[in-house]
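This part of the workshop introduces the protein records we will be handling. A learned vocabulary of local backbone shapes supplies the integers on the structure line. Getting from the letters to the tokens is the skill we practise here. As an example, a complete record with its sequence and its structure tokens follows.
=====
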Amino acid sequence: MSTLKVDTILKRTGTGTITVGQSGDTISIPSGATLNVAGSSVTAADNGPAFQAYMSANQVISNDTDTVLQFNTEEYDTAGAYDTSTYKFTPQTAGKYFIYATCAPSGDSNSALQVGIFHIRKNNTRILESRTNFNSNNGRTASQQISIVMDLNGSSDYVHLIGNVAQSGGTPTIEGGQRFSVFGAYRLLGV
């Protein structure tokens, strides 16, 4: 690998296109570097903080009771912003974040599952809800998705996921292991 050190690159004559690299190349701008585009500065950045966690095993919950869902195993956490003991994501960088989850409510027998409710909470306030209601045709399991873009202040705002599963008798679970239930977030750039 060699290094070219210059202050200015200009086209030999006139104006036109200056090509850097070729098809298939990756042009790298180091973290913290600033790229000036027509008077506007763009700082090289990634879309962190970001995390994704899953439940390593099924979580047994009380019937028809709001319960903090325990995504206890991180797949990644770029800034140490997700806590596997409180199950909260508290990023220390302000911005708009895409928050998402997939949850799998399950009854303990066929035709037992009545309702699965999941909601994203910001600072313990319900923001968005996903609901499956089997009415009088109870099921066994479901898979529900939920996602939203929200502003987080980068200091004290946090998000976590709450579940509520109702079934006809017995004890419901949220299916874990094998990535049946996952929770994640990442910061959006340019918004």
